[in-house]
Amino acid sequence: MKTAFQNEFGNFKTTETTIMKTIKPLFKSLVCLLSLASFATSSVAAEEKKKDIVDTAVAAGSFKTLAAALGAAGLVDTLKGTGPFTVFAPTDAAFEKLPSGTVEMLLKPENKAKLVDILTYHVVSGDVDAAAAMKMKEATALNKKDIALEVKDGALYLNKSKVTKADIKCSNGTIHVIDTVLMPPADKK
Predict the structure, then answer these.
(1) Considering the domain boundaries, does residue 189 fall inside one?
(2) What confidence tens digit (pLDDT) does each residue in 26-84 have?
């Protein structure tokens, strides 16, 4: 006489072979899923690493003024280019230190040349990490003007601007965050 279980499910063998035949495909599926999850996670991480200087600064959220200035100066495509570049990026708080109305005045189309001069004074050609910068006395910016570099109390200063966060790696260079907008020296006449 068969039990209700046997009628419903037939003769169920619980031998080691049957269990292994059942578990083995499940295990392979689990390994496959974990591999895919790992691949997806590494792809996302690789995609995040691929952000260029402009996209990295925009994503940070504390460089809105810099992003607007780069747009007004027509420098977005340059800093999205191959590079490598080292950008000393002033935060929104750094721009707020400027005299009232300065940013608005610089964003006007008639002041584009001055804005380009200021912004390109924040960019050095090449990928210069903080360790290398701390060994330098000066660096020549894209606008061909020199920036004085100095280490005080273990912190890197550019002219009088302090680097508050260093070595933000991007696909086309490095960003160093600074607390004050760098103003280029006047052209010699």
Answers:
(1) no
(2) 445 444 444 444 444 444 444 445 799 999 998 888 899 999 999 999 999 999 989 89
pLDDT tens string 103-122: 999 999 999 999 999 999 99
Same domain, 18 and 73: no
Q: How far apart are CA 160 and CA 86, in angstroms?
A: 18
